[in-house]
Design a protein that fits this description.
Elements lengths: L1 H20 L2 E8 L3 H11 L8 E8 L2 H10 L4 E4 L1 H9 L4 E7 L4 E4 L15 E5 L5 H12 L4 H4 L1 E5 L1 H9 L5 E4 L1 H9 L3 E5 H7 L9 E6 H5 L2 H20 L1 H11 L4 H13 L7 H17 L21
Parallel strand pairs: 1-2, 6-7, 6-8
Antiparallel strand pairs: 3-10, 4-10, 5-8, 5-9
Keywords: Signal
Organism: Candidatus Methylobacter favarea
Pfam family, one: NMT1
């Protein structure tokens, strides 16, 4: 009797072990306190995740460049990055691919009482720009100004810097306007600063009406093809987690410590801007719009951002089918 009980218990343990072994481990490189960290925290808080066919292991990253190195070295399976980078990698023979994560990008922000109300008003002003000369928001803003016969690159005094530094520049009145990444722009807005235009508004001005993701999950196509079902389920769960953060106050309250923000106005604005980045539609039209954006960036950056390829590389956007 004891032997039978032991044997049954042993078989159950083997069975459970086999089942657990079937789960796909997804190692995701995540910048501490970044929005991907919010989403994964919400996903892992969902009881249904325990029965999913994947297991998430978060790998902390110091910054975006560290993420790219970790992905290319195989230290992680996935990071959040942009499709321009993916296309440039594919043009050199790599097999990385992209799945949409967020459509929120940067914004042009000024003090509430600023005389600046349009891009033309930037003439002769000091403009703080997050990143460098090849920042996508900066290149696209130049393209929009060009439509109004304005050479923005020559028209403003440029101050480049890291996003937190750029915010400090405008708070200390060292610049007249800032073009910053969305979460830094949101922090300024919560403090009374005024948005002139955001990334989506810039694209609309350039005739691109589709909601094209600015960021997405990036991973090896060969790896993805070996884990299609688990990956598809992860993307669905990730989408559901984002929706919960946008519709459930209790879910949002749980991840507030990850925002590193104490005041309610900033928390509220961060949530608003984060939720505006939801990708509701991702198909042929959006991918064709991405090709048009690519062409603009390829030309304006003189190939420095995109690489030599005139077009987005086939396979840049992942499809499980």
């Amino acid at each position: 009797m004891k032997f039978n009980a032991f044997f049954i218990g042993f078989c159950l343990a083997i069975s459970f072990s086999s089942f657990a072994g079937e789960k796909t481990l997804i190692k995701i490189g995540v910048q501490a306190y970044g929005t991907a960290d919010w989403e994964l925290a919400a996903l892992q808080d969902d009881p249904q995740t325990k029965s999913a066919d994947f297991i998430i292991k978060k790998q902390p990253l110091a910054n975006a460049e560290a993420g790219k190195i970790a992905l290319q070295s195989g230290a992680v399976d996935m990071i959040v990055s942009d499709w321009i980078w993916v296309s440039s990698l594919r043009s050199s023979g790599e097999d990385f691919t992209f799945y949409p994560y967020s459509g929120t990008s940067g914004a042009l922000v000024v003090p509430e009482d600023s005389p600046i109300h349009s891009i033309k008003d930037l003439q002769g002003k000091r403009l703080g720009i997050a990143g460098g000369e090849l920042d996508k928001n900066w290149l696209l803003l130049q393209a929009l100004a060009k439509q109004e016969q304005m050479d923005l690159n020559a028209a403003v005094e440029k101050v480049f810097g890291a996003p937190p530094l750029i915010n400090e520049q405008i708070k200390q009145n060292r610049v007249d306007a800032v073009l910053n990444y969305w979460h830094f722009a949101a922090r300024l807005e919560a403090q009374g600063y005024r948005q002139i235009i955001d990334g989506r508004g810039i694209l609309k001005g350039l005739g691109i009406k589709e909601n094209v993701p600015s960021l997405g999950y990036v991973f090896k196509e060969s790896w993805a093809n070996n884990h299609k079902q688990a990956l598809d389920n992860f993307f669905k769960a990730s989408k559901q987690a984002k929706n919960r953060l946008c519709t459930s106050d209790s879910a949002w309250q749980k991840i507030i410590p990850l925002t590193r923000v104490d005041d309610l106005p900033t928390q509220t604005r961060l949530r608003q801007r984060y939720c505006e980045g939801n990708i509701e539609q991702w198909g042929k039209q959006e991918q064709q719009a991405a090709e048009r954006i690519y062409t603009i960036l390829h030309t304006l950056s003189n190939r420095q951002l995109t690489g030599n390829s005139e077009h987005l590389q086939p396979g840049t956007f992942w499809s499980a089918h």
